Request: fold
Amino acid sequence: MQNSISTSRKALYGAGDIMGTLAFTVTALFLPYFFTDVLGLPSLLAGLTIFLGNFWDALTDPFAGHFSDKTKSRFGRRRPFFIFMALPIGLTFVLLFAIPIGMTVISTFLLASIAYIAFMTSTTFYLVPYLAYGMEIERSYDGRTSITAWRMLFSVGFGLVGAVVPKMIWESTPTPSEGFLLMAIILAIPVTLSTLFPFFAGREPKLKKSHESNFRKDFKKALKSRPFIKGIVIYIATWTGIGVVQTLLIYYFKYVLNISGQFEIVIGVLFGVTIIALPLWVFLSSKLDKRKAYILGAAIFGIVLLVLLLNTPTVLKLLWFIVPLLGLGLSALHVMPTAILPEAIEAATEGNSGEGTHYGIVTFLHKICNAVAQFGILGMLGVFGYIETTQEILVQQPESAITAIRLLIVLVPVILFGIGIIFALLFKIGRDGNNPKDNQLGEDGNLS
Reply:
């Protein structure tokens, strides 16, 4: 049984997730809205911008992981990235929301695409080494659940900041475009500084055995590992589903429920319950295991999400029952898929190096799926008649667009969570390790 690292090291590592959570919560919740309802970019082009950025980011993820596997420095393999990527991340985050209004549609699209690609590239070379680093410094089964919970404590806490604060800032300025820029400048400070915390969590341990990382071989081997395939399906299905909800949430409040003024309050309660419930899921994981805790959380979130299909007056009456239950399920969805991944990767690498490459593969596939999902979601809004605007000028959306928002925010995530539950039932690695017979895919590629 491996010993767990100290609480202080877990906290320092967990604080490094502030960057990813704060920046990506803001971009997931508000960037599509900024493009369509402030810059006036058609929803199809807004979706294409996000698709191009995520697709490029996905292509660079395996390279970033492989590059960090091969890095040699007196600080270790991963830690140099935590220092060198801090400033580029902060600057590109501000650039995203510095796009001026009044340009042609093509000019806006091109500038937005370049800014988003630059931002996603800089974050890749921080996050992929960061994820691999966490797996390396914490080797115990329950310790990995604990270190993930520390990550999620900072993640959900600053997710709350990223969900509530931006709207408060941009509504305090003369125009939304000025407000979004001010918001980006203010939030860029914690986004930039938080990348330095994991540097002080300590050097990753020396490899027990030398491993010459070969990206092509590592990639092929990873995709033959049954536990790895199952683990990444759980992870990707879950986070893509959450991403769809985040993308459509502000549209849902503004155009379906017509209560955009209560957005901050509702999100505050949602994330507050998510934070409070984190210890509960860590406890349940220790009593059951990670996959059972995941299945329970995903089922709660998916079932409650279906209630949003009811008519608007009914949803408004039930809102303060729906939101806490969603927060309870969301708490499990934040912790468990991420805590499952290290065991899946360890099975694929057989305890050798290559964690960076494998995390690069995970983020590559996740971002490809997320890019397709966001492009499809925003593209569907365009197909169903969504009307873009500038400076948040309120327009009357056609009933077809409102219906599309209502259906997409529920059905797509529920399907994805269902896929995650199925693969969690198939995932066999527990506290005592995995079944060796389950480690590699057979000739027929069967996952059972």
Remarks:
- The longest helix spans residues 312-349.
- Residues 386 and 397 are 6 Å apart (CA to CA).
